Amino acid sequence: MAPKIAIVFYSMYGHIRTLAEAEKRGIEKAGGTCDLYQVAETLPAEVLTKMHAPGQKSDIPILTDPATLEQYDGFLMGIPTRFGNFPAQWKAFWDKTGGQWASGGFHGKFAGVFISTASPAAARSPRRLPWGAGSFAAGDGSRQPSAKELEVAEIQGEQFYKVVNNGPAASDENKKTATTADNTTASGNQTASDANEPKEKKSKGEGPCGLPKKCVVQ
Ligand SMILES: Cc1cc2nc3c(=O)[nH]c(=O)nc-3n(C[C@H](O)[C@H](O)[C@H](O)COP(=O)(O)O)c2cc1C
């Protein structure tokens, strides 16, 4: 069965949303589909007005219940910068995931990140690891994602889908196809993506921390 991907983002001024749409195009280019969700706004309308923020559009559903994500095999998360950190809107979402923490509801899911910052300095902050696509918005937010930044976001979506499609969620048939297409060099040597195969599969269900099926190192 084809893997299910969700792109979840918070975007106050639209930069992250534009990148999210590019990530979606990349996933579709790789032959997949995905659903877009927005993390809920936490600021009152009065504050948003003072920040010259347009407010969330209703064309993309708001992700209120994190359990919705349990049905997906992988998530791409769009995260703008707030004072060198990630926004409180995202924190409010994560603070609702106690149920998934307790049940392991997100265990084994794939995840990726894309970001937007005003400046390159913020992009280098540790918050940004692991690396993903990104866009600079400039101090006043006037700069829009460039064609190159959108291309990188599209490539991230495409590659993310391929990795998920070749991972535990994939059917044997999908894995066979993807392995033949992507992982074999002309000399027949194993490539980096082979080396990145989830260890879980190689160690008969035991994660690297020793607990059965608790950790998967990508
Ligand atoms: C309250 C606030 C704090 C911000 N802090 C930073 C920051 O520390 N570093 C930075 O590069 N950009 C910072 N920015 C700029 C935003 O990260 C940038 O405008 C945003 O990524 C644009 O994404 P969006 O249009 O999807 O909301 C800040 C913006 C706001 C509103």
TrEMBL record:
* InterPro entries in the cross-refs: Flavodoxin/NO_synth, Flavoprotein-like_sf
Q: What is the lineage of its organism?
A: Eukaryota, Fungi, Dikarya, Ascomycota, Pezizomycotina
**Which Pfam families does the protein's record reference?**
Flavodoxin_1
**Entry's family note:** Belongs to the WrbA family.
Q: Where is the composition biased (Basic and acidic residues)?
A: 196-205
Q: Name its species.
A: Apiospora hydei
List residues of the Flavodoxin-like domain: 5-185
Composition bias, Low complexity: 177-186
Q: What name is this protein filed under?
A: Trp repressor binding protein
Renumbered to this chain, region (Disordered) spans: 166-218
